[in-house]
Amino acid sequence: MSALREIFGDQLTEAPKKQVHKQNTGYSSHLGWVFVCNEFQERPKAVRTYHSLFGASEAYAYYTPNTFYRNDQRHAGNLRWLNAMVVDIDVKNGQNDGMLLPDVHDAVSRAGLPTPSLIVSTPSGGFHVYWYFNRPKRAFPKVTDHYKRIQAAIAEVLKGDPQAIGAERWFRMPTIRNIAYRDASRVSFDDLCDWLAIHQEERSAERKTACVGSAGLLHHPAVQKLLSGVSEGQRDNTCYTLALAFKSSGYTAEEAECRLKEWNQRNDPPMRELEIKRKVKSAFKEGAPAGPSAQWIRQLSGMAFAYQVWEEAKPREDRTYSHFEEWKQDVIRYLKAQGGVVSAAQRSIAQAIRSSSDRTKSIPYSTFKKVIEHLIEIGMITKTVEGKGRAAVTTLTLVKPSKVIPFIRKETPKKNGFNSNTFLDPVVGGIAFRFSSGSSWEGSRSKNLGLKRRAGP
User: Fold this and answer.
1) 71 and 33 in contact (C-beta within 8 Å)?
2) What is the pLDDT of residues 174-192, one digit of tens each?
3) pLDDT digits (tens, 9 = 90+) for 64-110
């Protein structure tokens, strides 16, 4: 049970606090919840004391090595602390056949990874490999996203399960019976970040020598190895991957299905033809990837591989800034709904304005600023700012039609019959606006964003 103490430290209490103790000490923001279960489909149980966790270790098979701040939701957004990096190495259905504990250590050493803190054997013959953090890492969204990137890279080099990725994932409960290796070493999260950076540089160097275009995809040795047939545990993923490879190489769905039926005869054993039809249909449906995942080809073939698929340019109406006119109308519509005046932080106003075509989407902050500049320039709104920095409050006022000031070009226009009620649209034939494709914004949700003053940039 000391392995669990090494993972969770002081995030769990020894036993439930009595009510008097809670009143004296108050709520602890350091504690976390651990989820346990026997079947992934069942409702999990949450524990917060070592007394409960040790009892659960005898009754439950799985647990979460990273802790949560709520006891009713096991998802990444509910994580509180990241305690360890864990990778699942499956040894079943033909994957990693014959892998033993020394093989795991050799793979870790070849990858340049630190010494594992714990290795747990699984009933299928696989391993769960742990690296304890020298101090818990607060599970902010950007941190958990990077955790997944590191975990995916480690899983790739150790031939682990590429689908068992995420800080919220289940792993086998470590017990005296299944602990295969244990070490006092710990790593910092920054050390693993450095390892990922080095790994990505090495992968980039590989791509310079192993990269192919989509036209030569089917002739690459890694794809040829998959086309030669695979074992039972790899058939589904390989079938879908090859279907995408045929698609990116110009095959129709019918041609790809025919080729995959031929490929299926080389599998051990062959899969049902109905499953091949389903994989091809999924690969060729609208919204499916344009080509196979390079990571899956590397994972399935065990060979170095990288490529790039060139896709046709998206239609102009699908591009980021082709919706400028639509956003302009959405801003005006929002101001009218607020009575013509709104005061708040600019980011809050931007987040409150929803797209008329997709009510779940807010206007990007960079686009919002350009739209506001445009509407001010053509005299449709006015803007005032009170305060500075994060405390600044912006007031946008919709100008009544009778007070609209027409926009006049700087150059002398031709006398073509324009009058005082004529608007010149600077988007078409007038002033060009520059947009930064790298712009981004972040905002926080708030009720009644359009009417409530709040601090913000």
Assistant:
1) yes
2) 999 999 999 999 999 998 9
3) 999 998 888 888 888 999 999 999 998 765 677 778 999 999 989 98
